[in-house]
Write a structure and sequence with these properties.
The complex is a heterodimer. Chain A is built from 16 helices and 9 strands. By secondary structure, chain A is an alpha/beta fold. Chain A folds into 3 domains: 176 residues, 3-Layer(aba) Sandwich (Rossmann fold); 85 residues, Cytochrome-c3 hydrogenase, C-terminal domain (Cytochrome-c3 Hydrogenase, Chain A, domain 2, Irregular); 37 residues. In chain A, a hairpin with a 2-residue loop joins strand 5 and strand 6. The termini of chain A are far apart. Chain B is mostly helical. A two-stranded antiparallel sheet of chain B has the order 1-2. In chain B, helix 5 packs antiparallel against helix 8. Classes of the chains: A alpha/beta, B mainly alpha.
């Protein structure tokens, strides 16, 4: 499907707009190479990115906010590369977004209807936040409509949907037990549309930009993993891309946050790092323009790009609580109790055996052979098998 | 003087069964110890640089290798449950006949509750033991499935990748890990009770069950063997394998 929009004859290409804002062609090409590397295209693919940004018109975007904290938007705004915020936020044109749009009230809601009518089947729907289903969705209403009805209405004519962050992808903290508002991820609310789950709390700005550029340059949904996350950014574990990994293999661990090992930057595995089960680009792209990421700053990964990470806690323990047990109990607690019960049972059984089985045991030693034989015959008479 | 002490020597556990048992035991112990270390790494080193050591990497390597051994050994045992003698047959492991179910109750009464004196003298295992080993086999499948599923994302081999479908069933890799670790505890508890009961049977019955898993031979009074053959439980008469039906009791 082409993104050429005849409805917008005066619309400039992204390249035109960037140049008009004083960016040099050199800087523009540098950006294309950089974002191309981010989304994992080969050298030849960068050419395609350049061409797309030079020739393709802006994508109309509707960016909805439901149950969320806007940290995804915040992350995106803090992207290291000025062109990202510039072209991808200003120029992809946020036709409707509650937190950044100028219009308010009825005008805002009217603009939403206008965009849907004008770009039917062409606009990109970005959703930040989860959708509450309890009590007919009263826990999140905008303009008198529930989040669910808005999402369904806008999704109907969307070209594709991007679910930003853990809220939209898996419900995040509001969906953690006991999930009082029945907060649902977008994939459980909307069916029949391609949904790209850009996971994280929040996602990395470059990852968000990369996904948008991929959609723009290749006009196709990027390759996704089994949780709907773009493989370009979520196919490797934080653990496997972590610069502290050699400490893990060497068995050098931080024992507590204020020890010498923490100061030396040993592996955070024993203080609960979820890096070994978390798929994200923190170890490679890092945050704030590659400055750092949680582990580099001495904090274990909490696994924010994984489903239901709030319920996989505690954050600072290696062994999570075992699911299904309300009280805080790890597999070790349960195992020790079960083993203890088995030990008590075995001890009692062993004592009982020496009383109740003494005839049979005696049979072996020959002490009570006759007695045992009598017992044996007696029983055989009693029971017929 | 009396028939009860007229013993017969019976070759019960063939070589593949005995090899299976000990390789399995070794693999489970190795997996348990290394698995415990992987979950609770001891603070062996508190100084030094990462390049001087690889002990945790080695522990993981041993764990993964033992996982392959466990799987291969298990597959050989499954083959042998079709090719081996009547004591090794797969039929014993599934309590599908009334006789087996009845023996299960009887064993529970005699050996566990000790409320009955009507001892069950099994040449192979008794019905409870066979059933327990079937459950242990399921546990093995569970551990192999979850273990290889955890290995799959970072493995180049096709074997772990056969199990990639397991992780979505649990929701996340973290949950798979938790259950995989809990599986180890089930093996610990099984092993504890298993070893106790071997001591128990060896002591109470005196049929040489302890040495049978080394040499393969059991010793039993002839009249008990006759009774055993008549019931057909745990030690299927050869005929039933040909006709495909279990003897009625």
């Amino acid at each position: 499907m082409s993104l050429e929009l005849e409805t917008l004859p005066k619309e400039q290409t992204i390249y035109d707009q960037v140049i008009a804002r004083g960016v040099s062609r050199r800087e523009f090409l540098g950006f294309c190479a950089w974002i191309g590397a981010c989304i994992g295209v080969q050298g030849a693919g960068v050419d395609q990115v350049v061409k797309a940004l030079e020739t393709k018109k802006r994508i109309p975007v509707i960016w909805l906010h439901f149950q969320e904290c806007t940290c995804c938007s915040e992350s995106f705004l803090r992207s290291s590369h000025p062109i990202v915020a510039d072209i991808l936020l200003d120029k992809i044109s946020l036709d409707y977004t509650e937190t950044l749009m100028a219009a308010s009230g009825h005008q805002a809601e009217q603009s939403l209807q206008d965009v849907i009518a004008k770009y039917k089947g062409e606009y990109l729907l970005c959703i930040e936040g989860s959708v509450p289903l309890a009590e007919d969705g009263v826990y999140c209403c905008i303009g008198g409509k529930s989040a669910k009805s808005i999402a369904e209405e806008v999704a109907e004519h969307a070209k594709a949907i991007i679910a930003w962050g853990n809220c939209a992808c898996s419900g995040c903290v509001q969906a953690a037990k006991p999930n009082p508002t029945q907060a649902m991820p977008i994939k459980k609310v909307i069916a029949g549309k391609p949904i790209i789950n850009v996971q994280g709390c929040p996602p990395i700005a470059e990852v968000m930009a990369g996904v948008l550029v991929h959609l723009l340059a290749f006009d196709a949904i990027p390759e996704l993993d089994n949780l709907g996350r773009p493989k370009a950014f979520y196919s490797r574990r934080v653990h496997d891309t972590c610069y502290r990994r050699p400490n893990f293999d060497a068995g050098l661990f931080v024992e507590s946050f204020d020890d010498e090992n923490a100061r030396k930057g040993y592996c955070l595995y024993k203080v609960g790092c979820k890096g070994p089960t978390t798929y994200n680009s923190c170890g490679t792209i890092r945050w704030n323009g590659g400055v750092s990421f949680p582990i580099q700053s001495g904090h274990p990964c909490i696994g924010c790009s994984e489903e239901n990470f709030w319920d996989k806690g505690p954050f600072y323990e290696r062994l999570p609580n075992f699911p299904g047990f309300g009280v805080e109990a790890t597999a070790d607690t349960l195992g020790k109790v079960a083993l203890g019960a088995a030990a008590v049972g075995v001890a009692a059984h062993a004592v009982m055996t020496n009383f109740r089985k003494r005839n049979e045991i005696g049979e072996q030693t020959g002490e009570n052979a006759e007695k045992a034989e009598k017992a044996d015959t007696a029983v055989t008479d009693d029971h017929s098998i | 003087m009396n028939a009860s002490h007229d013993y017969q020597r019976v070759y019960v556990w063939q070589q593949p069964v005995r090899w299976f048992h000990w390789i399995n035991a070794l693999a489970i112990i190795t997996l348990g110890v290394t698995g415990w270390l992987i979950t609770h790494p001891p603070a062996l080193m508190n100084s030094g640089e990462a390049w001087t050591s690889f002990w945790f990497g080695k522990v993981r390597f041993v764990h993964f290798t033992s996982g392959y051994v466990l799987l291969a050994n298990f597959l050989v045992r499954i083959y042998w449950s079709f090719a081996g003698n009547k004591y090794a047959s797969w039929r014993n492991f599934l309590p599908l006949t009334k006789a087996q179910v009845r023996e299960i109750w009887q064993v529970l009464k005699v050996d566990i509750m000790q409320s009955s004196d009507k001892a069950v003298h099994a040449l192979g295992h008794n019905a409870v033991a066979y059933f327990t080993y079937a459950a242990t086999g399921l546990l093995t499948v569970f551990q192999v499935g979850t273990g290889f599923a955890l290995m799959a994302p970072t493995s180049q081999s096709w074997i772990p990748r056969l199990f990639t479908w397991v992780t979505p069933l649990f929701g996340s890799e973290g949950t798979v890990r938790t259950f995989h670790y809990a599986g180890m505890w089930l093996f610990v508890i099984f092993t504890f009770i298993h070893v106790y009961l071997v001591f128990y049977h060896d002591y109470v019955e005196g049929h040489g069950v302890m040495s049978s898993i080394i040499g393969g031979w059991k010793f039993m009074e002839k009249h008990k063997i006759a009774a055993q053959e008549a019931t057909g439980i745990s030690g299927l008469p050869t005929k039933s394998r040909q006709t495909g039906s279990r003897p009625k009791v």
